[in-house]
Design goal:
The complex is a heterodimer of chains A (116) and B (113). Chain A is mainly β and 116 residues long. Chain A has no helices and eleven strands. In chain A, the strands form two sheets. In chain A, strands 2, 4, 5, 6, 9, 10 and 11 form a seven-stranded mixed β-sheet that branches. Chain A has a four-stranded antiparallel β-sheet with strand order 1-3-8-7, with no helix packed on it. In chain A, a hairpin with a 5-residue loop joins strand 4 and strand 5. The radius of gyration of chain A is 13 Å and the shape is globular. The N and C termini of chain A lie far apart (36 Å). By secondary structure, chain B is mainly beta. Chain B is globular and about 40 Å long.
């Protein structure tokens, strides 16, 4: 199994550009989420989804859009990149078994984004 | 979700046992305690989870006192490869109305040769 995959691994954008970070999982997990991690900080939740067609905001959703058209894919869109969005982005997935608080989260390898 | 407090960093020599304590004073009855490990340039990965008393697996042990207001992750005989950030999370089962996990800043463990 590939688990959780993310593309690209690295990306450099100019301020104002848009792009989509891709995330896919092959474990048939219902729950998927996006986090950002800044130096010296923990992971902060951006958006999450509990199933196809259902998304919701996390702690830091401003500047990001998501959609969930299939169980497997959960792309993160930056509509107009800003230097404050320079960060490492992690996608995670888990089954909705006992609950998000207890189900094991599986993380992707991350995308390192730099906005100039 | 209950808020957790952990030390920002810890140092240990190779071969020593390391104990990282997490405080979660507002833990609820249905909450479980989960620890994740994150190596540099990688996503976090699950280490261990428990509800009460002691849990042990091939990687670590988790000690939870009777009042469950804290928990201690124990790593036996650490090696350089255990250098990582360790996160303590508290969360409950489905139906609690929240699907958000809070990772916090974690504890950066540095193992010294």
């Amino acid at each position: 199994n590939a688990g959780v995959t993310q593309t690209p691994k690295f990306q450099v954008l100019k301020t104002g550009q848009s792009m989509t970070l891709q995330c896919a999982q092959d474990m048939n997990h219902e729950y998927m989420s996006w986090y950002r991690q800044d130096p010296g900080m923990g992971l902060r939740l951006i958006h999450y989804s509990v199933g196809a067609g259902i998304t919701d905001q996390g702690e830091v959703p401003n500047g990001y859009n998501v959609s969930r058209s299939t169980t497997e894919d959960f792309p993160l869109r930056l509509l107009s990149a800003a230097p404050s969005q320079t960060s490492v982005y992690f996608c995670a997935s888990s089954p909705l078994g006992q609950g998000v608080g207890t189900d094991t989260q599986y993380f992707g390898p991350g995308t390192r984004l730099t906005v100039l | 979700l209950a808020k957790t407090t952990q030390p920002i960093s810890m140092d240990s020599y190779e071969g020593q046992e390391v104990n990282i304590t997490c405080s979660h004073n507002n833990i609820a009855t249905n909450d479980y305690i989960t620890w994740y490990q994150q190596f540099p340039s990688q996503g976090p990965r699950f280490i261990i989870q428990g509800y009460k008393t002691k849990v042990t697996n091939e990687v670590a042990s988790l000690f939870i006192p009777a009042d469950r207001k804290s928990s201690t992750l124990s790593l036996p005989r650490v090696s350089l490869s255990d250098t990582a950030v360790y996160y303590c999370l508290v969360g409950d089962t489905a139906g609690a109305g929240s699907y958000q996990l809070t990772f916090g800043k974690g504890t950066k463990l540095s193992v010294i040769p």
